[in-house]
Amino acid sequence: MTLFLPSAPTPPPACVSSAAAGLLPVRQVMARSETTIRVLVVEDEPLYAEQLEAALEDLGYEPVGPAADARIALALHRTETVDLALLDVQLRGATDGIQLAAQLLAHRPIPLVFLTSHADGPTFERAQEVGPAAYLTKPVDPDALQRALALAVRNFGAAPPAAAPPPPPATVPDALFVKENGLLEKIRLSLVQSVAAEDKLCALTLADRTVHVRMPLRELVMHLPADRFVQIQRSYYVNVEHIERLDPVRHLVQVGKQLLPVSRLYQDELLRRLRTIG
């Protein structure tokens, strides 16, 4: 099947020093003297994320997050005031930091600063396509971090406003169209219980059948409502509206008639998305 859009163990990271002699306070760099610059931190290593937050606070910035994956980062970008994004390139999950950057810019343009542990040429070339203000190699030198952030905000504020993008084409809400046997069949996303990667295909599980789509998972998830679908494994997303039970001790979730394992990496975000009482 082909998907059509409707036409109408890792070593501990090196520490980031949060203080460096000779760094200018951010207030001397920004014209917005009354407003603290809010920086979205996207980093999947908890210890390193904490160190980045501490460094940002010492430099006069206000951290937002941290976000451990693309879905959390997008949700924060939509719901919080964010002036700048500090992104790890190698994120866990189907969407890496470069793909996430493009999604953030599509929602609302902001200056971007990339962090990476792998300064290889192909990755750098991909990163250039989204126009980052800086591309820093871990462990981050505090002087370099301060200067990159200051230049990112200054240059972004000095740039002329971009032309407004053309309005998107009209689409059918809450639906995708899947091509099968020469026909386009409408699949309502509200009826999709889960989405899983299967080799080069994606399996969309509904109550009565499974539909296969010829598209990588990292591309398909861009068309799923972020407020409805949540990641539970590296290659598995579920619709929170179809969750029947969750066992946080055995790390299992029942979605419709499916009993699925939940990775420890994603369980906290899954719990956060569920309204719990008692």
CATH topology of the largest domain: Rossmann fold
The overall average pLDDT, rounded, is: 81
Number of helical runs? 8
Can you tell me the number of structural domains? 2
Domain Response regulatory: 38-153
InterPro entries: CheY-like_superfamily (IPR011006), LytTR_DNA-bd_dom (IPR007492), Sig_transdc_resp-reg_receiver (IPR001789), WalR-like (IPR039420)
Pfam families: LytTR, Response_reg
Domain HTH LytTR-type: 176-276
Outline the structure in words.
- The protein has 278 residues and is an alpha/beta fold.
- The chain has helices at 26-29, 46-58, 70-79, 97-107, 121-128, 142-158, 217-220, 264-273; strands at 2-4, 38-42, 62-67, 84-88, 112-116, 134-137, 175-180, 183-188, 194-198, 201-205, 210-213, 229-233, 236-239, 243-247, 252-255, 258-261.
- A five-stranded parallel β-sheet has the order 3-2-4-5-6, sandwiched between helices. Strands 11-10-9-13-12 form a five-stranded antiparallel β-sheet. It has a three-stranded antiparallel β-sheet with strand order 1-7-8, with no helix packed on it.
- The longest helix is centred in the middle third of the chain and has 17 residues, at 142-158.
- It comes from Hymenobacter edaphi.
- Residues 176-276 form the HTH LytTR-type domain.
- The modification 4-aspartylphosphate is found at residue 88.
Topology:
Blueprint: E1 2-4, H1 26-29, E2 38-42, H2 46-58, E3 62-67, H3 70-79, E4 84-88, H4 97-107, E5 112-116, H5 121-128, E6 134-137, H6 142-158, E7 175-180, E8 183-188, E9 194-198, E10 201-205, E11 210-213, H7 217-220, E12 229-233, E13 236-239, E14 243-247, E15 252-255, E16 258-261, H8 264-273
Parallel strand pairs: 2-3, 2-4, 4-5, 5-6
Antiparallel strand pairs: 1-7, 7-8, 9-10, 9-13, 10-11, 12-13, 14-15, 15-16
Helix pairs in contact: 3-4
